[in-house]
Target: tRNA-dihydrouridine(20/20a) synthase
Amino acid sequence: MLLSPVPLTRLEHPVSVAPMMERTDRHFRYFMRQITRHTLLYTEMITTQAILHGDKGKLLDFSPAEHPLVLQLGGDNPQDLATCAKIAEDWGYDGVNLNVGCPSSRVQDGNFGACLMLQPEKVARAVEAMIKAVQIPVSVKHRIGVDECDRYPDLHRFVQIVSEAGCQQFSVHARKAWLQGLSPKENREIPPLQYPTVHRLKQDFPHLFIEINGGIKTLAEVQSQLQAVDGVMIGRAAYDTPYLFAKVDQMFYGEPDPPPSRPEIVQRMLPYLATWVRQGVKLNSLIRPMLQLFAGQPGTKAWKRHLSENAHLPGAGVEVVEAALAKVV
Model:
């Protein structure tokens, strides 16, 4: 007799790359997979309405090489979120994450993102519906507070209520969010980081998987944070200094193989780039995640200059990337 699969409650990864709008698309994720095989990756936030009424293939397709991969959803309707979570599971995603952290006005107008922290019961209903719909893990990404609702008891209550609905994994951006007066970019920079608040959350909820996010830029910082929490989510540094992840598999996943060199990563990308160029995708959109590969290295300016000046030209192909690489090595 076949037994029903046991639902997974969480994806226990020590390191992940944060979901970032206009950053963590499929080309960025494939590129990151040439650097780290094990780091948990996320999509950009995709709204439930886009999935339900849009081009699902364009929104959701990914390469098998991108696993492990989590789809981040934006929305507040439990039934819509449950339906999209099931779509994500059927599409092959390893988990689904609910965005309760984005402070943009567009997101607020849709009544989702960070403003949902003010409605923990609503988040709990959504999470419960999603968990009932799928076997893959359901997680929540949120801030430590919103506007004047920023005391630790408010955060504790939010996590308590949502965890009682079944959520076992919380990714916590260690800044509060201001819903008015700050842009999304300013909300990533101006509210002060409060790492001890997230550490306290882990102490109070030892049975939950608590992941910290915000301002972490080095692997030494990752190691330090892992003394207090279960996982570390890296955001902008993954885009600005992607080769930072070259040693992640060895340091945090026990991978015995040495990390690839930067030129090796470029060589690995060439067949992928050629495939998409043949399908009509512009080279400059494909190589955007690669621009910072040589950040901090001799030749990085020549690398970026050649790509920036030539990748947008009609008919540009992998020979542009090969020529740029020749200026570095």
The chain has two domains: 15-253, 262-326.
